[in-house]
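Lecture 7 notes: from sequence to structure.

We start with a single chain of 386 residues. Read the sequence below before looking at the structure.
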Amino acid sequence: MTETKRPSSAPADWAAFKEQVKNYAFSIGIDKIGFTDAKPLTGHLPRLLRRKEAGFRHAINEGDPYKRVNPELHMPEAKSIISMAIVYPSRDPALPGADSCIGSRGRFSCISRGQDYHGVMGQKLAQLKDFILSSQPWSQIITAVDKEELLEKAIAVKAGLGWFGKNTLLVTPEYGSWVYLGELITDLPFPPDRSLEDGCVACRRCIESCPTGALDEDKNLNPDRCLAGITQSKHLPAREIRAAMGVTLYGCDLCQQVCPQNAAAKPVAREEFRSGYDEAFPLINDILGITGGEFKTRFGHTSGAWRGRTPVQRNAVIAAGNLRDETAVPILIQILLYDTRAVLRGAAAWALGEIGTAGAAEALRRAVETEKDPVVKNEITNSLNK
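Now the structure, written as tokens:
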């Protein structure tokens, strides 16, 4: 049998074709683009193995360490990776009229507002892939957006998009760390770009601002203390962490808000990521009583909804406790006595203890007699003792 050979349609100048790809990327709304080789990122493997061995409770999508550092395990013929960034809004929506601001409100982080960035970035990656295939129809290309097992920040650094900040995020010179990332793994030999110098050498504001001490000087992140990860987890956060959560419903922007590089970041307005005040800062009592269908209707289009209603609702319960919001007591009592989700009952027990009204205490005394879950019962007991 005669072996079928792949036709050769390679451009005469790969550097020139690379410029064509970059120009097309900019034309479809990609803000930054860089190219690098597909060699294994072996220098990151020891750190990933230590993280896996630590067994962090709140780590999200850690994945296979060996697959994360080796693009060739995704595509054996891989020769280059195209790394791209899209800027997302870093400013809170304008405050509406006073009448619509009555009541305690929670906060969704900037990254979780507007349309889910996975879909927005995925669409642009698909467009760029089609553009390349129109010239190189026999090439192999794989798209990756966040959920794939790939070290996208390390790839972006290697491709010259920015540097690895002490907040463990990619920091770009133009847009700071307010960027979404996506990649194309290809079997095409694009010339690689140069990496940038580290711009976070002397600054440590992000480390000092983290309320839970999740960051260190060596650019390590402890997922069990990072509020961004904790708010997405499905577990009940440790008691000493809950006060630091404040009114956050999803994510955390603290280490980005204090970054000098972010203060000077170039703003980019995108219709896809526009959000209203009630979406970014919903009433806590509304979230406490929200049904699954209502949650999907209001927030299903956002990346803040990807873990479902329960983590966001649990965070709203904790926010009510942090605010000592007495108006939330009736809903919290309903959750404590009748909700089928133990994580919400446990959070409600803590929040009622923080609020400390007579009605809250009476509900806790009722619940301690009927609660079967040992973790929830312990939360009830601690609140009663308090």
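The mean pLDDT is 91. Keep this in mind for problem set 3.
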